[in-house]
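Q: Hi! First time asking for a complex rather than a single chain. Here are the components, and I think there are two in total. Is that enough to go on?
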Amino acid sequence: MMPNRRIAIAFAPWLALATLAVYVDLAGSDFLLHLAIVTAIYATLAMSLDFAFGYTGLFSIAHASLFGLGAYVAGLLIAELGLPPPLAILAGALFAALIGTIMVALFSRMEGPYFAIGSFAFGELVRIVLNEWRSLTHGPMGLVFPPQAGKFSFLWIEINFRDKRELFAVVAVLTAMVAGGLWLVLKSRLGGRMTYIRDDPNLAMSLGVNVFRTKLASFAISGFVAGLAGGLFGIYLQFVAPSLFSGLESVRLVMMVVIGGAGTLFGPIVGAALIVLLPQALRMDPTDSLIINGVILVLVVLFFPRGIVGSAHDFILRQLTPAGGGTIAPTAAATPERSGAP
Amino acid sequence: MLDTFLQQLANGVVGGVLYALFAVGLTLTFGILRVTNFAHGEFLMAGAFGAYALSILGLPFPLAVLGGGMFAAILGIVIERLTFRFTLNQPINGLVVSLGLIAILQNVAAKIVGTQPYFMTPAYPGVLDLGGVVLAWQRIATVAFGLSTIVGVWLLLKRTSLGRSLRALAIDPTATALMGVRTNALYSIAFGIGCAMAGVAGSLMAALFPLSPFMGAAPVAKGFIVIVLGSLGSIPGAIVGGLMLGIIEALGAGYISSAFRDGFGFVALILVLIVKPAGLFGVAERRA
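A: Yes, that's all I need. Here is the structure of the assembled complex.
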């Protein structure tokens, strides 16, 4: 094999993405910045779902609710306690992590579709509570963030969240940090244990992996990232309502992960970009774009179950292998693996 | 006091029969095709609009209900042939496909009929007054049609050779195929029956509630609560679970909080999952 070329290929997309982000932040129009912010936030959210689903095998349909929870907690802390936005976002993320961990603890004995159904019910319950607890959340009307949620100053740093250019810089850096952080975790022993559980929970258990603790840890990280994305989204919109994370939002999220490629970390970013940008590029109304996205999702599952990035990765690996070089053994956590993911 | 309780109970039973009807179809597709079909509610919606169209054309209510069920069944069989047929061995893939189908079916329906609500005129106006407990005839008809559909499917499964093959398929597809049963056709039939039940439930709902392309979203959540309460794949479980959920919701809304009506089922589900992950009627082996 040619290690240098493989490394180059592994890093090229990230480099291209970073260049694109810097370009958009410096020269993008208002509309382009809006799209970039939304894409980056959804990419973060989709990565968090991929971390739980693509790597640990926990198919969560509650992630849209964890996202919403992060946004609500951040907004409420700013509005009611006057916390500075970064602290409020952090608290929202921690709260989402806590709720996500409790959910996994409750459903720890359930696998595959069973966990999916349980998480679906749990997510719905969170949404109903947020919708009906009107004295706190203002119900379906939504929660408008107070003016102090629009800016943040600390020592010499001053950030105006209402300025799209400044906000995108923050969001882009956080997205990069999340991607890097998740990648490091996946390279760690925890990441290895997660993939064992995904591939065969019984075998993992027999090898001495603490399945319960590993699931909790991975879901805590995943929930934290989902809540973080939610807090950022709330700060961007300066508003949050239950309709922002309806059941259809969970479906869109699954589309991002699966179309991009579950279990590939980079794939959900591509998926998020596709789901957010495609309707804009083709100037479709939401009804048409949901139909198209649904069709793409079904086709991807049936014909390219590894998603865009997974399939492209497989294709490139095949090209790199010298003719007659035998099979490519999937290695390490960094290489996306086949099973578990659709 | 007692009257109020009986009235709530009666309302609960009407809702419960609809839940049971919908959930038996859902649990059938889960048990036989191993598909966690989140798009089951969209077949309910298709059936409801089918029945609505037929009643507009002047067909009597029972025929409209039958037509709604058949429309949902045909749609289901076409979709099964195109998608779920290829995900039999990977339950998670089937689940993801069904999520995609939600987006497709809801929005295709929205393109055809628009997003405004439709109202179907009840076929059986008037009420039955039992001294305190008041029941609309339409609701009594709903219970009658719903129960007879469930009993019909039950007899089909238990008393016919087709039913025996279907039950065998749920237990062991390979052995069933080896016994000379044409399993390919059976998968379509099973999915068709499941969708027909959703379609009948939708047709019955059409006479009670407004119709819209998005009317399937709430029932599917309830349907999953019901089949998990009653253990996935178990038909008696789905019937009992459906009635239980209807009654829990009616009493919860009446005595605790009507705003939280939709939440009671989820709470019950989560409690049951914690205590008995295999459901109330479940055997441990059924799980995963």
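A: Strands of chain A lie at 143-144, 151-154, 157-160, 239-240. Let me know if you'd like any chain examined more closely.
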